Amino acid sequence: MFNFNVHQELSCIAEGEGHFFAKAGSMVAYKGNFTAEKVLLDTNQNQGLFKSVMNLASRKLTGENIPLMKVSGNGSYYMANRSQHVSIITLQPGQSIGVEGENLLAFTPDCKYGVRFLGSGVISQKGLFTTNLTAIGPDPKVVITTDGNPIVLETPCVVDPDAIICWTGPDPNFRADMNWKTFIGQSSGESYFFEFNNPGEVVIVQPSERAYGGASGINLAID
């Protein structure tokens, strides 16, 4: 079993033995003996070939097929992505988290990997789908990256879709704040929002907007 820890804010170190999954190309160094192989079908190894193929197809069709590698071995394995800030999330039993694919760095095999539909995304340019990870084992950990230090909010809250990284609980509602000024180019630049109304969940945003712009969950632990 591997234990994830943040190393000097900008990298994650996985220590132990066994295997885990990580974004392809995220390794920056390691000590020990490791092999890395591309995940061709699915990370959910116990669900059978048919379900693995269907999961792969759904990820490809929705654009959420993140290039992943299975890392096996023993020792210390260092991962990073473009000098981004790294955070580690520990899920509660059965808990799910929606994660922006570009911000997913690694996760343990105790997480079921898939996609979830996010209907309101089409209006905000966020996208119709996002990556979904569900705790299915005793050590479900997810490693995320953010541009700058993450902002952790307890719901209810309202966030910018272009800054959101991940969330627990139900998906957000879409809220628009548009008037005549929006259509003549005089808006504030904050015309649409994601609104989380279910109390006691967690939302993480980054202090930076993406360029494309336009036991309850509170028990979720972040290192």
CATH architecture: 4-Layer Sandwich
The secondary-structure element order is EEEHEEEEEHEEEEEEEEE
Would you identify the regions where 5 or more consecutive residues have pLDDT less than 50?
121-126, 180-184, 213-218
Total domains, how many? 1
Largest beta-sheet characterization? 8 strands, antiparallel
CATH superfamily: Mitochondrial biogenesis AIM24
Mean pLDDT: 82
Q: How far apart lie the N and C ends? A: 18 Å
Structural class: mainly beta
Can you identify the CATH class?
Alpha Beta
Which key features would you list for this structure?
223 residues; mainly beta; Double-stranded beta-helix; AIM24 family protein; AIM24_sf; AIM24
What does this protein look like?
Pfam families: AIM24 (PF01987). With 223 residues, the protein is mainly β. The chain has a single domain (2-222), classed as 4-Layer Sandwich (Double-stranded beta-helix). It contains 2 helices and 17 strands. The protein has helices spanning 49-62, 121-124, and strands at residues 2-7, 11-23, 27-38, 68-79, 85-90, 96-99, 104-107, 111-117, 129-135, 141-146, 151-154, 157-159, 164-168, 173-176, 192-196, 202-205, 221-222. Strands 1, 2, 3, 4, 5, 7, 10 and 17 form an 8-stranded antiparallel beta sheet that branches. The protein has a 6-stranded antiparallel beta sheet with strand order 8-9-6-13-16-11. A 3-stranded antiparallel beta sheet has the order 12-15-14. β1 (2-7) and β2 form a beta hairpin. The longest helix has 14 residues, at 49-62. The radius of gyration is 18 Å and the shape is globular. The two termini are 18 Å apart. The model is unreliable at 121-126, 180-184 and 213-218 (pLDDT under 50).
